[in-house]
Write a structure and sequence with these properties.
This protein is mainly β. The protein is built from 2 helices and 16 strands.
Length: 233
């Protein structure tokens, strides 16, 4: 019998405490071809753009100003914005602020007509969203609610109370991020308590479920399109 794979729990607060210099960054976990990182925002980042990847900014603590070609958003704890590929941007903060950043890192399976390798010029409006505010609107437990699109992934919000069904995803890893409350993740690796600001990545094909005695909120990432398309004839 093969040994059961353990799940490594990551505490965002602990990792944030290791960042001491402005705009230093630390990768927290890899979810397929997405990376979840945290960086210390203090001062002003130079203006820049990414031609091949979207970026999701979610403020963990503090307040930042996210300036872009599409306008400026002031983000406070629990608020997020997605900067599309090709849109110039910079983040700044007067005080120490810790920001979660989700972005594609592996350039795999990018083909014309599916995942754009290069950004195209277009206009738009930078929107922001509050995770706690969205969570208060959710009435059904254990039903993922899509929040924003990031490249070919969707950031989902799931409100939990009681014991949920088993989930088993056969084609991608699963991020289980306890955003608010106290939960327990059950899997073949055992029971993994997850408090607020703690997360794990469940490997492909591993069945798992979440329970919580009180209302809690989870964030997760789900691929909404197949990772590859056949080449045209």
């Amino acid at each position: 019998m093969e040994p059961t794979q353990t799940l490594d729990k990551v505490s965002i607060a602990e990792q944030a405490g290791r960042l001491t210099e402005p705009f230093t960054m630390m990768d927290l976990v890899q979810i397929d071809d997405l990376t979840l990182s945290i960086y210390l925002c203090q001062g002003t980042m130079p203006f820049h753009r990414h031609v091949d990847q979207d970026e999701l900014f979610l403020v963990h603590s503090g307040t930042i100003s996210l300036e872009t070609d599409w306008g400026t958003a002031v983000l406070r704890p629990g608020e997020l914005s997605v900067v599309p590929k090709g849109v110039g941007h910079r983040s700044s903060s007067l005080l120490r602020s810790y920001v979660l950043l989700v972005q594609p890192r592996l350039m795999i399976n990018r083909r014309n007509g599916y995942r754009r390798l290069f950004a195209i010029k277009r206009s738009g409006h930078l929107e922001k969203l509050s995770v706690p505010a969205m969570g208060r609107q959710v009435q059904s437990f254990f039903q993922p609610v899509p929040l924003v699109q990031l490249d070919t992934f969707v950031l989902n919000l799931t409100v939990c109370q009681g014991t949920g069904p088993y989930w088993q995803v056969e084609d991608q890893s699963s991020l289980v991020f306890c955003y608010e409350g106290q939960t327990v993740l059950e899997s073949p690796a055992g029971r993994t308590p997850l408090g607020q600001g703690e997360l794990v990545v469940v490997p492909v094909g591993v069945a798992h479920r979440v329970s919580s005695p009180h209302r809690a909120m989870l964030l997760g990432l789900e691929r909404r399109q197949p990772p590859d398309l056949p080449l045209p004839d």
